[in-house]
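Field: sequence (string)
Field: structure_tokens (string)

Example rows 1 and 2, in order.
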Amino acid sequence: MAEKLGLSYKNSVELHKITDESLPGRPRFKREEIVVAGESFDIYFRDVIECVRALFRNPEFAAYLVFSPEQHYSDPACHSEHRIYHEMHTGKWWWSTQIALEEKTPGATIIPIIISSDKTQLTLFRGKTAYPVYLTIGNIPKEIRKKPSRQAQILLGYLPTTRLKHITSPTSRRRALANLFHRGMKLMLDPLVEAGKHGLPMRGGDGVLRRCHLLFAAFVGDYPEQLLVTCTKVCPTCDVPRDELGSGDLGESRDLQAVLEALELVDGPPGEFFAACRGAGIKPIVHPFWEGFPYTNIFRAITPDILHQLYQALIKHLVAWLTNSKAFGPIEVDARCRRMPPNHTTRLFTKGITTLSRVSGQEHRDIARIVMGLIVDLRLLNGHSTTRLLLAVRGMLDFLYLAQYKAHRSTTLGDMDAALRKFHANKNIFVDLGVRARFQLPKLHNAGHYRYSIELFGTTENYNTQTTERLHIDYTKDAYNASNTRNAFAQMTKWLERYSVTTTL
């Protein structure tokens, strides 16, 4: 049969050999060992330079790639209040970094590296997890990057998922896990240090050879990941004290130079190193992966997270406050949900919204669309005026939707800040009602940093964790299901290599 069909293989073994050795695809995975507290752990990853090269030279992206920063304005006079932010190349980070780079090495092309990581469940009951790390570049427009079918994101590798149960001290275990994370990330990303400083010749999909500087620009992850990456405890961006998280005020930006000076003491006396890290406001981590990155401030590289910070946190809290028995209570709110007429624009919650469990981001999105209409004419159970409460809800919802604009002007960013201030000005109604005692919520505080991030890196679509959640299906869960679940990661990486070949052809 194989001879009659003119096939170059006779069985699956020969087909896999051809796929593995003769056909082009994404970069191959390699395995390294990391030793922590006397135990070794495997890490699987690709060459980060080759991953960037694969995206940069992809002919499907050639017509869309951006090679230089731009400043966009909505009026010909180019007034600062009319500046527009949308794609990453319209932000201030690329512009200022290009100027700094041109002063030292003229003719440089910046490739902004966007890294995202997120631990995910592989099984429902056996507790198996994977820790994928994804990479993309800011030269590719956001509309392409956010579509999994365009394959503008590359699985860079899998970090170890061990819990280090052999370490009995909880404090030592947490520190060892953080060091393990940074050691793994350093193995993956260390080539970016030299590639960022001196540049590399890279040929794009248009055939032009450019001197490209690969610069770590942004990290995409949820709040625990942000703290892990920045080695911080409260806010990954500023030095706000924990007891001031609910004030609505931002702290001073973290001093990168002071942090780097503290990290240089790692080989000295442990007491001095710990004291220096404490003074700089970070945890005593041994050589964080970003320590040597040029033109990178890791504390500014932390980006907003619409899914986990707003929908899965603030909207979740807001619904719980409103349906509390000291506010409107669950009975009338659920009754109004059930009485909503059938329509084609909003979701019907026929059993109400207070009985939902394991609420997804999409469900919180649907709830946010109707929550104001559910409560606008309700009376509080204890007779309080609803004016401040409605203003607080309106402020939160306005901020939610303004933060998701596909393009921003300086004026709309001002509107977003005003909406957040409106919430803070009226939030104490929940304290007066007895619903909450205080508002020390890190994710509420992080909302105050959204404007700065949008001005640096463009709108929030450029760094959306929802994209990462979708990638788990293609690059982690499907790969795991294709394995025999024993020594899974070796099989998963091989399956992904073959999968990339078939999708590239």
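Row 2 begins here:
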Amino acid sequence: QPAVQVALIDYHLDDGALGVDVIAVLRALRGDLHCALITADRSEEMKQQAKELGATVLNKPLKPAALRSWLTQKLRGKPLPPSA
């Protein structure tokens, strides 16, 4: 099974959990994983948290072209896994 290359995580998760906490765990497990935080939150606190984790912030509403561009940039030169 191919390794995961990117993670797209929403900022506000269920029960008050935050996507930055998920990214922190993913970074501990896989430092090379490309992470993006998808959010409508525009606070400086959120931006700082994402920056500290090396995560890209993709603002909602997220346009398909913006997501495609980010994925292309991060996966350049890496084959995509076959569709499931």
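free_text_note (row 2): The domain at 6-75 is CATH 3.40.50.2300 (Rossmann fold).
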